[in-house]
Amino acid sequence: MEFLDLADWRTRVASLYLSDVDIADFRRRKDELFATHPQSPVLGQDFGGLAYFDVDESSIVDVPLAPAEGEFSFDTGNTDGVVTYARIGILETPFGPLTLWWTKVYGGGLFLPVRDGTARTETYGGGRYLTDTIKGTHGRGLIWLGGERVRLDFNYLYHPSCAYSDRWTCPLAPEENRISTPIRAGERLKIPT
Q: How far apart are the first and last CA of the chain?
């Protein structure tokens, strides 16, 4: 029952993101989910846990969100076809401006991909996500504070599934979400010992 497994994966991801556990317990529970779930992107791999940068309090920032317009489209190359994202705002972060997107599909969702100065050497070359609410990553990486303010916690940056397996196709950060400043927070590549 592949589709029910996928629905269960998304339910478990959303439950984890919406839980009230601290970041250490969040990371431990995420490792358990990756190690055991049949929809895990590391399924069949020798998995010893995800690698993370140390938690960095300076990577939690409250920033303004300036309204913006426009779209970009991503051809998934699979059954999802072309997915269009609407630009809903520009976040003025200490690392550089980032565009917050709305995925224009049934149900929609917030999407914040980031490719920073750690890409290719310390993190996945295509970038990481801070939130993709269609996939259930609510309430940790991006929190609306009301009005035109948003809290971003870059300690929750994570690699998309395609970083772990070619079973998955992932939209990568568009040019305007590529910043040269390194953000050493969230998931990182495993460093060989």
A: 39
The alpha carbon of 15 is separated from its chain's Cα centroid by a whole number of angstroms, namely 16
Q: How far is CA 40 from the centre of its chain?
A: 15
CB-based contact 156:99 (threshold 8 Å): no
Are residues 171 and 37 in contact, defined by beta-carbon separation less than 8 angstroms?
no
In contact, 130 and 157? CB cutoff 8 Å:
yes
Q: Could you tell me the pTM of the whole model? A: 0.94
C-alpha–C-alpha distance, residues 128 and 118, integer Å: 10
CA distance 127 to 98: 13
For the chain, 193 residues long, the average pLDDT of each consecutive 10-residue run is 90 97 98 96 90 97 97 77 92 97 93 97 96 93 96 98 89 94 96 61
Tokens of 161: 């599934």
43 and 168 Cβ atoms separated by less than 8 Å = no
